């Protein structure tokens, strides 16, 4: 019903808007970035190396969410949980807890944190202008948890047209599974974007995205199956996501005010593979399963302000976000398709966050030297239901207030060299004061050649489980540690970029970089005693990573190609009681290639995306029994991914038809022995990555 309603609404608005006319013409605007900048800056002049994925690339990928987009980037591994439906990003081998996820410079609230370990499938790309990625510790600019890097999702805030309308329908198979109807198969996506320029100062807009993923059965038999062999349900659980937001923007002279209201509704259905038989008497019987629904709602109020206070530039970001993930259990009568004994929804994880960040710059009104001072604060009320972790059967409610001041200075020594040192003091009512430092240097050899040196630090705070876990019975004793201290990350990187244009129209870009990342006081589970077995969390481990990367790009007319390669090594020192792992480096190769070509006259666009992820090795603990453990080398096999898309515009680019194949090599899982087992639970032998090859078709209307 929801899909039909969305489709009818799209058609109705199309008919209305078709008669409208543009009031302004499209202008070419030089690509700018904002992440880590004093003000919007040309990417070539950025003090940091920023990877930009623009809206054209996103459209050519036919990506359905941010996870799909980032899956094409080097040194970013998207880790998916097929039961929870969540997908998080790991950068340089560090999990999603070490990466800060922002939307318009504001951290995104998630199930267990602010800005980190965010489920990227909840973030749609319906109204995204570009995604900016900066690797390395950025604690001075973005505070806690920005250890491995920052991913900043920049949304569209205005339009050059009087009336803007975009509507699309995308149908996609999930592996070989597809059925259009309700309780069917496949993925069904509808989007609608509306914008209206009231006058030269005021713009309003609304965006709707509905992503209906019907799950992936694979080796399972679906929710109707009554067999008692563990094959009921899905390998990847069904998930339905609705994103709605409305925006208002005011822009006059040097003042810009942007407000956004956002709403997310996610429904995930878990179908239990265990089926039990229920006798009804008189020779009658039925079959029951205890299933679960998860319902996540998120509300966002966001305000971004840019203005001048005399000669001083001011940028302010404010937000209030609340996310509540609830669950309910029920008995499902499988043969009769009926829900019985349905529980009320109860909170699984909940977070309420008030956030503000303000930056003042241009105090000296000088082209040679400038400095900025800023503040950042957040007040988070967190809740974890007893079922969300091992909390001794209790719900956990905690509040934390963080406040920070930071200062940086940018000195343009001459026409070639510029330098920016920075410092942040972070205060918290839970942890001791944290100090972060950074030094960034840029050498502009020519207008298109740059060398950058970046040194920075950042911290990661302990999560709920590490602080408050309490799981004690006759066979287990696992307890959190409220005396943990934040982890500390340190990064140093050097990169070079060069651009070459010749008289024949070829435009070349080449680059090379090296990055070193060190994390100390890493939090890990440690066996406190062996007999009896007592386990807790301590700051005992360290982590090192070295990354070497090369970049090449070329463009001429309708042809474009980008090829990148990286070779990175990871060393982890792991401690378990008296056993300490070796600290050898294990190296991995990754490469990707993106190519596109537009046929003259008919403007057909061909796009190819390829990524190779090499073999990964690491030490993991092989617990032979409770008192006998040893560290061994585990391996995760290599794999390749390829997507291919064809897009054809019609009727003066008002309509577009896209067809394509995702995961051309039909990858679903890879052998993985890097996962740690234990005395009671064995390690998994494979890592689930995707659900195999899929096909899609998309129709897009642009007014």
UniProtKB/TrEMBL annotation:
<keyword id="KW-0798">TonB box</keyword>
<keyword id="KW-1134">Transmembrane beta strand</keyword>
<keyword id="KW-0472">Membrane</keyword>
<dbReference type="InterPro" id="IPR012910">
    <property type="entry name" value="Plug_dom"/>
</dbReference>
<comment type="similarity">
    <text>Belongs to the TonB-dependent receptor family.</text>
</comment>
<keyword id="KW-0998">Cell outer membrane</keyword>
<dbReference type="GO" id="GO:0044718">
    <property type="term" value="P:siderophore transmembrane transport"/>
</dbReference>
<feature type="domain" description="TonB-dependent receptor plug">
    <location>
        <begin position="45"/>
        <end position="150"/>
    </location>
</feature>
<dbReference type="Pfam" id="PF00593">
    <property type="entry name" value="TonB_dep_Rec_b-barrel"/>
</dbReference>
<dbReference type="Pfam" id="PF07715">
    <property type="entry name" value="Plug"/>
</dbReference>
<dbReference type="InterPro" id="IPR037066">
    <property type="entry name" value="Plug_dom_sf"/>
</dbReference>
<dbReference type="GO" id="GO:0015344">
    <property type="term" value="F:siderophore uptake transmembrane transporter activity"/>
</dbReference>
<keyword id="KW-0675">Receptor</keyword>
<protein>
    <submittedName>
        <fullName>TonB-dependent receptor</fullName>
    </submittedName>
</protein>
<dbReference type="InterPro" id="IPR036942">
    <property type="entry name" value="Beta-barrel_TonB_sf"/>
</dbReference>
<keyword id="KW-0732">Signal</keyword>
<dbReference type="InterPro" id="IPR039426">
    <property type="entry name" value="TonB-dep_rcpt-like"/>
</dbReference>
<dbReference type="GO" id="GO:0009279">
    <property type="term" value="C:cell outer membrane"/>
</dbReference>
<keyword id="KW-0813">Transport</keyword>
<keyword id="KW-0812">Transmembrane</keyword>
<feature type="domain" description="TonB-dependent receptor-like beta-barrel">
    <location>
        <begin position="246"/>
        <end position="664"/>
    </location>
</feature>
<dbReference type="InterPro" id="IPR000531">
    <property type="entry name" value="Beta-barrel_TonB"/>
</dbReference>
């Amino acid at each position: 019903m929801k899909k039909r309603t969305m489709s009818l609404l799209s058609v109705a608005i199309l008919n209305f808007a078709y008669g409208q006319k543009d009031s302004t013409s499209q202008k070419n605007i030089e690509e700018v970035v904002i992440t880590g900048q004093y003000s919007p800056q040309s990417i070539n002049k950025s003090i940091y190396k920023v990877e930009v994925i623009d809206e054209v690339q996103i459209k050519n990928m036919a990506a359905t969410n941010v996870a799909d987009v980032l899956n094409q980037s080097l040194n970013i591994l998207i880790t998916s949980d097929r039961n929870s439906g969540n997908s998080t990003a790991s950068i340089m081998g560090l999990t999603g807890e070490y990466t800060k996820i922002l939307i318009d410079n504001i951290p995104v609230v998630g199930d267990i944190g602010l800005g980190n370990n965010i489920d990227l499938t909840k973030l749609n790309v319906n109204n995204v202008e570009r995604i900016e990625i900066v690797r390395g510790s950025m604690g001075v600019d973005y505070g806690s948890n920005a250890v491995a890097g920052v991913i900043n999702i920049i949304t569209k805030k205005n339009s050059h047209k009087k009336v803007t309308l975009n509507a699309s329908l995308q149908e996609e198979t999930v592996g070989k599974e597809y059925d259009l109807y309700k309780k069917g198969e496949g993925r069904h996506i509808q989007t609608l974007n509306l914008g209206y320029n009231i006058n030269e100062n005021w713009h309003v807009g609304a965006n709707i995205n509905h992503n209906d993923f019907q799950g992936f059965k694979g080796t399972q038999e679906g929710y109707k199956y009554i067999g008692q062999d563990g094959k009921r349900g899905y390998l990847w659980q069904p998930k339905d996501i609705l994103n709605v937001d409305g925006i208002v923007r005011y822009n006059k002279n040097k003042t810009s005010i942007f407000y956004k209201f956002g709403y997310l509704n996610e429904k995930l259905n878990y179908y239990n593979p265990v089926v039990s038989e229920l006798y009804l008497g008189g020779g009658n019987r039925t079959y029951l399963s205890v299933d679960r629904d998860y319902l996540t709602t998120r509300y966002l109020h966001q305000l971004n302000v840019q203005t001048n206070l005399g000669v001083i530039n001011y940028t302010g970001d404010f937000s209030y976000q609340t996310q509540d993930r609830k669950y309910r259990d029920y008995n499902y009568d499988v043969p009769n398709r009926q829900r019985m004994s349905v529980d009320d929804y109860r909170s699984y994880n909940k977070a309420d966050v008030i956030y503000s960040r303000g930056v003042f710059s241009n105090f000296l009104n000088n082209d040679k030297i400038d400095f900025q001072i800023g503040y950042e604060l957040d007040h988070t009320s967190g809740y974890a239901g007893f079922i969300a972790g091992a909390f001794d059967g209790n719900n956990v409610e905690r509040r934390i207030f963080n406040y920070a001041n930071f200062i940086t200075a940018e000195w343009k020594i001459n026409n070639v060299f510029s330098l920016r040192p920075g410092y942040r003091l972070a205060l918290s009512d839970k942890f001791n004061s944290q100090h972060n430092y950074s030094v960034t240097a840029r050498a502009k050899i020519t207008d298109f050649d740059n060398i950058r040196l970046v040194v920075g630090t950042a911290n990661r705070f302990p999560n709920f489980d590490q602080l408050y876990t309490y799981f004690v019975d006759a066979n287990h004793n696992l307890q959190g540690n409220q005396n943990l201290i934040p982890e500390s990350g340190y990064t140093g990187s050097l990169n070079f970029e060069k651009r070459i244009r010749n008289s024949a129209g070829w435009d070349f870009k080449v680059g090379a970089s090296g990055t070193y990342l060190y994390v100390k006081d890493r939090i890990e589970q440690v066996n406190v005693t062996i007999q009896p077995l007592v386990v807790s969390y301590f700051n005992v481990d360290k982590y090192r990573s070295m990354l070497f990367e090369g970049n090449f790009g070329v463009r001429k007319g309708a042809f474009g190609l980008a090829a990148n390669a990286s070779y990175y090594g990871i060393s982890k020192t792991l401690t378990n009681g008296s056993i300490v792992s070796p600290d050898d480096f294990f190296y991995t190769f990754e490469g990707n290639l993106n190519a596109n070509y537009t046929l003259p006259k008919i403007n057909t666009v061909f796009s190819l995306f390829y990524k190779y992820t090499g073999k990964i090795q690491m030490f993991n603990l092989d617990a032979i029994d409770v008192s006998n453990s040893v560290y061994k080398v585990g391996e995760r096999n290599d794999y390749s991914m390829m997507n291919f898309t064809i897009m054809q515009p019609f009727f003066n680019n008002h309509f577009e038809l896209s067809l394509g194949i995702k995961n051309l090599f039909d990858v679903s899982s890879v052998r993985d022995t890097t996962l740690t087992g234990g005395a009671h639970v064995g390690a998994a032998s494979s890592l689930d990555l995707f659900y195999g090859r899929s096909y899609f078709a998309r129709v897009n209307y642009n007014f």
